[in-house]
Specification:
This protein is mainly alpha-helical. The protein has a single domain, classed as Orthogonal Bundle (ABC transporter involved in vitamin B12 uptake, BtuC), CATH 1.10.3470. Helices cover 77% and strands 0% of the residues. It has 13 helices and no strands. The protein is globular, with a radius of gyration of 21 Å. The termini are far apart. One of its GO terms (biological process) is siderophore-iron import into cell. It is a multi-pass membrane protein. Belongs to the binding-protein-dependent transport system permease family. FecCD subfamily. One of its GO terms (molecular function) is transmembrane transporter activity.
Length: 346
């Protein structure tokens, strides 16, 4: 019997990594299913578990059935869609900018979408979330472009410069948004329930209105996986492999903006999900963007649904908004990343 040689050790490395990825993916799917069950079963209104089952299988129009089937089920489906959009958008932004701090909220994209949607509410009286997506798309694109230019306009711009530029742009857009709603009470009434970031009071109509946009963005992201791996090697090497880095980055940025616009129009500006999830996914899967995207698309809705359930239970008989809970989770994570990077050059 002979000892395993170097070739066998090299072969077991990728095989072990693949096994870890598959096992992790199955674990995340199981966690997502548990989060879905918890989201349907628990809420601000206590409903016995047997009544939850009856509401799903034999709807009778009772208050408990309405709470479960008409409120929690659409809320859960929307949470899955919005969470996947935010997680994948964060992953794409980090890949495109090569910036570990890139995230829709930190880069001002959420603030841009919010400012555009408030403009639609105030000036045009548009309240349908499906119409908001178009305004959110324009606002998110403009905000991302401003942050990119202020941060240096280069693919390898300093993470700190992009974070500072995003903070500045977000502050300016938030000021504009506050000024608009301050002088328009009707817009304020719609905006104040939306601005914190929440899945509450969103029916299936909202899901179907923003669903096509989120589906397009997620499809583009899935197609871009191999190209993002090539771009990560550098422009020259990626071109040698037959990739087109400029087109890949542009398409990835477009997909991220579509996802952010759709998610923000549906649930408001929910922050830090797109920052934390890709880092956790990358720690498990390694640098392969195909796996990071898949993990992000599953982990982010799990995190969002858990945050939503926690907000419902902590705030009984009311509820704590989902955006508040994710901020409480994400802010320490953001600080930890900055400390780990030890950024000294601004």
């Amino acid at each position: 019997m002979t000892d395993a040689g170097p070739v066998d050790e090299v072969r077991t490395g990728p095989a072990r990594r693949h096994t870890i990825r598959i096992a992790g993916l199955l674990a995340i799917v199981a966690a997502l299913l548990l989060a879905v069950v918890a989201s349907v079963a628990f809420g601000a209104r206590p409903v016995p578990l047997d009544q939850v089952w009856m509401a799903l299988t034999a709807y009778d129009g009772s208050p408990d059935a309405i709470a479960v089937r008409d409120l929690r089920v659409p809320r859960t489906l929307l949470g899955i869609a919005v969470g996947a959009a935010l997680g994948v958008a964060g992953c794409l932004m980090q890949a495109v900018t090569r910036n570990p701090l890139a995230e829709p909220g930190i880069l001002g994209v959420n603030a841009g979408a919010a400012a555009a949607i408030v403009t639609a509410l105030s000036l045009l009286g548009i309240t349908a979330p499906g119409a908001h997506v178009w305004f959110g798309l324009v606002g998110a694109s403009a905000a991302f472009a401003m942050v990119y230019l202020l941060g240096g306009g280069q693919a390898d711009a300093s993470p700190a410069r992009l974070a500072i530029a995003g903070t500045a742009v977000a502050a300016a857009l938030t000021g504009f948004t506050s000024a608009v709603v301050l002088f328009d009470s009707a817009a304020f009434d719609h905006f104040r329930f939306w601005a914190v970031g929440s899945l509450a009071n969103r029916g299936m109509s909202v899901f179907w209105q923003v669903g096509p946009f989120l589906a397009v963005g997620l499809l583009l992201a899935a197609i871009l996986g191999p190209g993002l791996n090539a771009v990560a090697l550098g422009d020259e090497r990626s071109r040698a492999l037959g990739a087109r880095p400029v087109r890949i980055r542009g398409t990835a940025a477009l997909a991220a903006v579509i996802l952010c616009a759709g998610a923000t129009a549906a649930a408001g500006p929910i922050g830090f999900v797109g920052l934390a999830v890709p880092h956790i996914a990358r720690a498990i899967t390694g640098p392969d963007e195909r796996w990071v995207l898949a993990y992000s698309a599953l982990m982010a809705p799990t995190l969002l649904l858990v945050a939503d359930v926690v907000g419902r239970l902590l705030g009984r008989p009311g509820e704590l908004e989902t955006g508040v809970v994710t901020a409480l989770i994400g802010a320490p994570f953001f600080i930890a990343i900055v400390r780990r990077l030890r950024i000294t050059r601004l």
